[in-house]
Amino acid sequence: MKVRCITLGAFQVNAYLLEDPATGHCAVVDTGEGPALAEGLVKMDPRPDLRAILLTHAHFDHAGGLADVQREYPEAVTYLPTLERELFEMLPRQGSMMFGMPEFDRPCGRIDRYVADGDEIGVGEWRFKFLSTPGHTPGQGCYYDDKYVFSGDTLFAGSIGRTDFPLSDPDLMWASLRRLLELPGHLIVCSGHGPATTLDEELRGNPFLDYLRRERGLPSFSSDMAPGPRWG
Ligand SMILES: [Zn+2]
Predict the structure, then answer these.
(1) Ligand 1 center–CA 148 separation, angstroms
(2) Phi, psi (rounded to 5 degrees) for 18
(3) In what order do the strands lie in the sheet with 148-152?
(4) Rounded to the nearest whole angstrom, what is the distance from the C-alpha of residue 168 to the centroid of ligand 1?
(5) Most CB atoms closer than 10 Å: which of 28, 38, 39, 59?
(6) Is 155 exposed, middle or buried, given 0-12, 13-18 or 19+ CB atoms closer than 10 A?
(7) How far apart are CA 206 and CA 203, in angstroms?
(8) How far is the CA of 60 from the centre of ligand 1 (A)?
(9) Structure pTM?
(10) Which CATH architecture fits 2-224?
(11) 45-70: per-residue pLDDT in tens?
């Protein structure tokens, strides 16, 4: 699988363009907040053969560009975590109601399939699994195969997603990170913001994961390391 990171918009969201070399079928993970991804895709030469749109969660900075991508690719199948439905349906007023930013109110676009923990998704010949990791939002989830995990706003290099937003739940977030870090450590973490990392790297050094290091009897260093910034 070929993976290209495309960083978009005011919140520097990472969308990912994935291509199955066997079939040429492509997918995107998240869309950014506006039309930039759609405009970028149609200018590429050759134009990607987009078959699927995988949304990690329904915050406007990740899902606000869905309708724009669907206008260019009406046949692409869009996946959303089941538990994100309520937040997704708020998109037309999410910016104004939840964040005081009416300029980021967005149309919903169309959801074709809802995914739940353990579901499998195919793009071309290649398969992803969906891991539900609620906490940042009620249904935020990660898509992974045997090499990559697309973690949305659950886990970042050196940080984790914020849990102080409306509908966030910190207790769920700690449990979700515990489950995420049970996946193979070599997986490359493609996050919703910031650089790529690996699960092993984060288990070793992410200041927010000290509770997991303690649980596993790994060296812990919370006392001399302050938590870094968290992302949206
Ligand atoms: Zn978010």
Answers:
(1) 20
(2) -110, 140
(3) 120-123, 126-132, 141-144, 148-152, 188-191, 197-198
(4) 10
(5) 59
(6) buried
(7) 6
(8) 8
(9) 0.95
(10) 4-Layer Sandwich (3.60)
(11) 999 999 999 999 999 999 999 999 99
